[in-house]
Amino acid sequence: MKRLFALAFLVIYLFNWGGYLFLQNYLVARADRHMNDLISQNLYDPNSLIEVKVKQNIPGIFEWPDYKNVTGQLQLKNACYNYVKLKFTKDTLYVLCVPNYEKTKLVKSNIIYAKEINDIPSDKKANDPSAKKSGQDSKYDHPISRINFSFVNNDMVALAKYRNKLIKTPFISLRGQPPEFLS
Question: What is the DSSP letter of 181?
Fold first, then answer.
C-alpha cells in the first residue's frame, strides 16, 4: 500500500515537474495538425478569412496580381492564425488567415498556468491598453542598408606584393642543430 502511494505521488510530482509541458506541447501540435488537415482539404469557411496587411518597402519585387496558396502560422495579439493565401505588392504584404481557436485557447491557458506556477504578480498597468509605450523600440523600425561592393584598387594589390618582397628570408637562422626528437 505504501508503494502504491509513493508511486502515485511520484507520478504526480513528475507530471507537475515537466509532464504538463509535454502534454501542452502535444495538444498544441495536435491542434496544428488538425488545422493543417482542414486547410489542405479546403474545409475552411472562405467568409471567415481575416486579411492582415504588413507594410514593407521592396521596390525590386514583381507584384502578384492575385493571391497564392501558401500555408503557415502566425500569432497576433494573443490569437493564433493559420494563413492560407499570400499576396505581394511593392509596398504591402497581404495575408489571408483562418483563426485557430483551439490553439489560441491552449496557448492562453498555458500562459495563465505558467503565471500561477511562477508566482508572477499580475500587473494591471501591463494589461491597460491606454498606457503608451515610448522609446526606440515602441515602433517597428526597418532601416534600409545599402552595401556597395567595389573592385579592389590596383594600387592596393601592388602595395601588398611590395610588402611581401621586403621579407627576404622567412626563416630565422639558429646556431647549431635543433635538438633530437625523444620518443
Answer: P
Single-letter residue type at 135: G
**Three-state secondary-structure class, residue 134:** coil
**Pairing verdict, β 50-55 and 92-99:** antiparallel
Cell of 160: 601588398
pLDDT tens digits for 39-92? 888 888 888 888 888 888 877 778 888 888 888 888 888 888 888 888 888 888
Instruction: Give me the half-sphere count of Cα atoms (radius 13 Å) on the Cβ side of residue 82.
Output: 23
CA 15, 17, 20 angle in degrees (round to 5)? 50
* Grid cell in block for residue 156: 592596393
C-alpha cell at 62: 514583381
Q: What pTM was computed for the model?
A: 0.53
If one counts every other C-beta atom within 10 angstroms of the C-beta of residue 146, the result is: 4
Q: Pick the residue with more confidence: 9 or 107? A: 9
Residue-level pLDDT at 92: 85
Beta carbons of 81 and 74 less than 8 angstroms apart: yes
**Measured distance CA(123)–CA(134) in Å, rounded:** 18
Q: How far apart are CA 43 and CA 35, in angstroms?
A: 9
Which amino acid is located at 133 in the chain?
A: K
